[in-house]
Amino acid sequence: MIVFDLKCASQSHVFEAWFGSSADYEDQKARGLLACPLCGDGDVTKAVMAPAVGAKGNSRAVAVREEPTAPAMSGADQAKMKALVEALATAQSKALEDSTWVGRGFAEQARAMHYGEKDRSSIHGEVAPAEAKALIAEGVEVAPLPFPVIPPQAKN
């Protein structure tokens, strides 16, 4: 895995992202699949990264970069959060039971249904953030899912 520091253009948020290879980063960037997790901006570039250098001369010790930490959650709050996530996952799963996976053909099929070229049905699939914004601007009814959905053939 390769870790990149990425930065959005609109708010200059810097965040960390992991990729299997540099080619994976380039592929996802070209397909418009990268977006800032803080503001949703799809204009994301690699941020300047400080190299991890040894702390003493030829020592192999690596300088540790401190990450901001979130405030600790109480046990009750953790239980509430877990219950909320489980409820959302269950609701999404039930909603997708009668929906058809269309993969990367989502935008094309959603437009066809919107313009009456195809019968309406419940579908789900993949769409780049910029394409989703274009669909919404055209008045196509789409809704993002709270959790990522993997293709049916990828399930264990």
Automatic annotation (TrEMBL):
Pfam families: DUF1178. InterPro entries: DUF1178 (IPR009562). It comes from the Bacteria. This is Uncharacterized protein.
